[in-house]
Specification:
The structure is a single chain. By secondary structure, the chain is mainly α. 80% of the residues lie in helices and 0% in strands. The protein contains 10 helices and no strands. Helix 2 packs antiparallel against helix 4, helix 5 runs antiparallel to helix 6 and helix 8 crosses helix 9. The longest helix has 49 residues. It is globular and about 75 Å long.
Length: 225
């Protein structure tokens, strides 16, 4: 029983990591976008098209992950094999630029992970700051907020690109980010910046040396002192 639970947790972790740090969100978003784009031909409603695309994309990305031996095993394998692949790519080239192209090509397998990891790294200062201020639970909540925002924007970009081209790839993530921001709230950094601005404004109002401008009052410079 314990082994079964551990296996289930591990499998869910693989799926989640593949979606957030691998190609899962891209594959699923592409399938959803394609279903939306072709729904007039297939006679599906928008909700049904989204559901169908989600199901197809989910099955495809999980099948790809399983075929590669699992997300973490595949990622480690790509990291360890990359130096050898780059050396082989360099040797296979016939000229300097051909050698450069061959040497850099293996990095493409690591790009989805590298880009998503760098994206998440931008949220680390927020997570650390909130953890210091609110404790471990505050850090967990900030981590969840960052991951949720990352997942929604990544998925929205893929859906928008597949369904509406370049315009959708740019517009849909912006709309999705606004929606997640309204639901999940602002990041720790944004909240602290607003608190600091409000604090400075309050201090300025309490400063006796700040001159308050009188509106609508005319000065009579001809009257006697």
């Amino acid at each position: 029983m314990v082994s079964g639970v551990f296996s289930t947790v591990r499998r869910c972790g693989e799926y989640g990591a593949n979606f957030l740090l691998g190609t899962g969100s891209e594959v699923m978003g592409k399938k959803i976008g394609q279903a939306i784009k072709t729904r007039s031909k297939t006679g599906m409603s928008l909700p049904k098209a989204i559901g169908t695309g989600f199901k197809v994309g989910y099955n495809k990305t999980n099948a790809q992950m399983a075929a590669s031996g699992g997300f973490f095993k595949n990622l480690i394998g790509n990291f360890t094999a990359t130096p050898g692949r780059m050396a082989a790519g360099w040797k296979s080239g016939s000229g300097f630029f051909s050698k450069i192209k061959g040497a850099l090509k293996p990095l493409g397998k690591l790009m989805p992970f590298a880009m998503n990891a760098l994206w998440f790294a931008q949220s680390i200062p927020d997570i650390v700051g909130r953890t210091k201020e609110e404790g471990i639970w505050g850090g967990i909540k900030e981590t969840g907020k960052a991951l949720a925002n990352m997942a929604v924007i990544s998925l929205a970009a893929s859906v928008g690109s597949a369904a509406f081209g370049m315009v959708g790839m740019l517009a849909l993530p912006i709309a999705a980010s606004m929606l997640t921001g309204a639901v999940l709230g602002k990041s720790y950094r944004e909240k602290k910046a607003e608190e600091e601005a409000a604090k400075q404004e309050a201090q300025a109002q309490q400063n006796p040396f700040v001159q308050q401008q009188t509106v609508g009052k005319k000065l009579d410079i001809t009257s006697a002192a």
